[in-house]
Amino acid sequence: MKLFATPKSHFSRKVRLLLDHLELTYELVDVGDVSSAESSLFDGNPALGVPVLEDGEVWMLESDHIAFYLVRTYDPGDRFNIFTESVDLLNARAVMNNIMANEVKLILAERGGLDPSPHAYFQKALKSIELGLSWLEARSSLLKSENPGYAEFHFISLWEHLELYQLTELNYSKLQELAELLGQLETVRKSTPLSLAE
Q1: Terminal-residue alpha carbon distance, the chain
Q2: Numbered ranges of CATH 3.40.30.10 in the chain
Q3: How far, in Å, CA of 136 to CA of 131, rounded?
Q4: Taking the CA of residue 40 as centre, how many other CA atoms within 13 Å lie in the half-sphere pointing to its CB?
Q5: What per-residue confidence (pLDDT) applies to 135?
Q6: Does residue 196 carry a pLDDT above 70?
Q7: In this structure, are residues 152 and 145 in contact, taking their beta carbons and an 8 Å threshold?
Q8: Is the pLDDT of residue 195 over 80?
Q9: CA distances from 68 to 15, 81, 92, 124, 136 (A)
Q10: What is the CATH topology of the domain spanning 87-191?
């Protein structure tokens, strides 16, 4: 099994956390610069992004779809609550995906030499990140530090990525406390981006 990703990618990391918790062996193939337009780097992904999973004949795109595949194939008991029907948790995961996608917009703009600050498009992205974090802070009780599942994998991947790139202030005490507790787990520390782990 191969996962095409980067060590810092938050979308890839939530898949890595699931793989690690499922105790599945995989090769992490670092694609390098995700701002590249070189399609061969992304294992044929036409969206030019990560993660991409190869598992035998199976080729999967998009982190949540990969997670669904992994659980259907390797964990039919769904120990990590991938297939939750909780509307609140599904909304939380949607908010987290939105924060992550907007953060990527801002990071790639800066990498491309564009100052995002004077552009309404990027200001909306930043505002969406801040509103999403406030929304999660008010609903932090949905997430737990003991026996974490996919929502928590999602959260810690998001939070530590925000800490790494520092595009916005992280003044959310409940989320900070949760991140600190999750960050103490060996299975979480295993995939922490090195620049945060040092």
Answers
A1: 29
A2: 2-74
A3: 9
A4: 0
A5: 98
A6: no
A7: yes
A8: no
A9: 10, 10, 17, 30, 23
A10: Glutathione S-transferase Yfyf (Class Pi); Chain A, domain 2 (1.20.1050)
Instruction: Give the residue range(s) of CATH 1.20.1050.10 domains in the chain.
Output: 87-191
Amino acid at 88: D
What does the pLDDT look like over 56-74, one tens digit per residue? Answer: 999 999 999 999 999 999 9
Mean confidence (pLDDT) of the chain? 94
SS3 154: helix
Q: Residue type for 33, please?
A: D
Tokens 């595009």 locate to 167
Sequence letter at residue 9:
S
How crowded is the C-beta side of 26, counted as CA atoms within 13 Å? 26
Residue 10, CB-side half-sphere exposure with 13 Å CA sphere: 23
Helix (H, G, I), strand (E, B) or coil at 137: helix
Is-contact 175 136, C-beta < 8 A?
yes
CATH 3.40.120.10 describes domain 2-74: no
- Residue 145, classed as helix, strand or coil, is coil
Instruction: Give the count of alpha carbons within 13 A of 8, CB side only.
Output: 14
Q: What is the DSSP string of 168-193?
A: S----HHHHHHHHHHHTSHHHHTTS-
